[in-house]
Amino acid sequence: MREFLLGLRLLFGAGRGSRVRFLLMAAGGSLGVCCLALVLTVPQILDAHDSRAAARQPRSASARPADATLVLQRSDPYGSKAFTRVFVSKGTRHADEVPPGLDRLPGPGELFLSPRAHDLLRDQPDVKGLLPGHEEGLIGAAGLAHPDELFAYVGTERGEIAGEGRALKGWGYSYAPFPAVEPSTLTYLRFALGSLVLLPLGIFLSVCARLSAASRNRRLASLRLLGLTTRGTQRVNAAETVVAALLGALLGLAEYEVLNQVMTRTGLPSLRWYPDDGALSASTVAVCLIGCPLLAWFVGRVSARDATANPLAVRRSAAPARPAGWGGLLLVTGLGIVVGYCATGFTDHPANSIGVNAIVMPAGILLTGLGLVLTLPLISYALARRVARRTGSLTLNLAMRRNEVEPGSTLRVVTGLVLLVFSASLAQGVLIQLEQVTRPSAPVQDYSLALSSLTGEQRRALAEVPGVRGHAVTAESWLDPASDGDQPWASAVIATCDQLARFVKESKGCVDGKVMRLSDPDAGTGQGARPGDPIHFRVRDGGKDTTLTLRLPREKITYDTHDPSAVHGADLLVPPSALPASARVDGARYVLTSGSDHAEVRRVLDGIAAVVPTAEVEPVGINIEGLQQIAVLETLLGVGMVMGLVIGTAAFVVSATDRAMERRAQVTAVTLIGARARTLRAVQCVQVVVPLSIGLVLALVTGKLAESAYLVTGGGDIRWDLAGVPVLALAAAGVAAVSAAGALPLVGRRVDPELIRRD
Which of 66, 208, 304, 519 has the fewest CB atoms within 10 Å, i.e. is most exposed? Predict the structure, then answer.
């Protein structure tokens, strides 16, 4: 305890530099702990979403006694969101069973809405068609998966849902019907967040624990020479590192609480939660308050080992020992695993992510990243030693000699930025894999709406929705009930040649203004329809029903559709001029097409909802729940990349500031013997840029290999992301330029000889 108190007295009585260093350690640690708490809380937020969604699911039976309470649940797309409505017809049995968020079941003509549905009904009166009745109240937070959910309980008469309703037995299941993130995809998410955030975070916290290592080692060596035992010296060192880490952990948890309150009010794109969902759990608090000081103690103990074992060498600035090479073993091991998985991509049976591969492949990537960081001091030392012996440049000689003497000092400045580039490369692979798994195979996305629900003005407005590339009408021919069953039928596309071309890969032989036969080699033809056969369509024109008969022509258009497609398998192209202007074919669908990028699909769906709020939209080949999951995953990955950027930048700022204070005495000495400020600034830039450039090149190479290993085991079509190389190269060049500019302030303008005497 005496040594611990001595360490505290030295901490607060050793001058302003010591106090600034302590504050830097605490501030850096607080930022790291805040990011750590956010990463640890993400699964908790998703679990809270799923738990509330599961708790409100109606438990029902198909047998419907006369006195049973009936329920019918509908989930329809409203734009890019799902709008869930639960229709309830109260009976005498189980009428007191109330779902979470309500205090009673709605009666006939009553509505209970979520806050988001309440706002939607106020802003879009047309939505009233989906919500018959009058609003009685709002659904509480316990009955909603998240604050932005569109959800409603609709009271109705028994006869309205008697055909499809089920007898209510209670509420709540142990699983959510549509989880916020599928369990299989959650594995990818955890791995991505671990690589993007946790690996750089561990390095960052280690950097914070080793700030001003040279000054502390000299002070610890002095105490050791004064007779303090090895363990006592370690306790003195622990007083500063552990107290700073503990203070940083407390500040970080407080920062997270503020961040949680702010983010629950502002939200993230496609991800909202209640404050209690993101509240700190006991396990998160324990990891932050115990794990971070423990990491600081371990790092401090390792960094102070030389000062306690050989204090004379530290005080006399003896020639530095060659950095340990065991980090290279980790790098070689990790690269061996990664390259092995990459090699399977050239075979007919590439490795997958099943079984032991699900553990070995991520372990190889993490070993590669960790080995990259631990090997940089050795590479920097060897390069600096070799260049300093051969160069004739004063600037380069001074810079390399300093890197040779303190290889770890410069690397503490650049490690976070190197890991940032490595993690960014891996993040590209995660996003590519996510796109391959969830994105439709076709480059276009089609949407289908019932033509009878649209006015002419709405059709024109839908065709002008941003992102919509084309529009057409599809219809099925009419079969006469009185026929003997062998009447030919066909499906038709009512469009011009230009409109048809926007829905298909290619088409040949189309002539505008003519009814033509469509021939798709990958699809069959209608029920026995042959050239010359009559095809009948029921048409409503001016309130009258008539029959339009068209002969299946011999002239044909050969076309190839995407898969899936709203016009796949069509047999007949009918020009709009063949129909009266006000005529509508019974059962016709109004179809639109756009690009298949997820952001564009969401934008188009939202645009459709703004034009026709109550229309039922069928996105061909995708489902709204899957689209929402993609949006959540993209948001979480975006948050991970932002946190990685924050951690990397913070590591650079904290390390550069500490290095400026640590080097003041050496800069003053070199200035007094005649070195110009321009030379010193060039030296500082070279000291940072050279090892950083080496690290960035290694990060690019190892990062792309790790990304390829991830893509190969993912089983997608893309295994080698060559398109991402220029982006990462430009990012690395930008990082080097920013670090060079950040190194310039390390040379102060004021020369203070007192620093030399004090040293």
Answer: 66
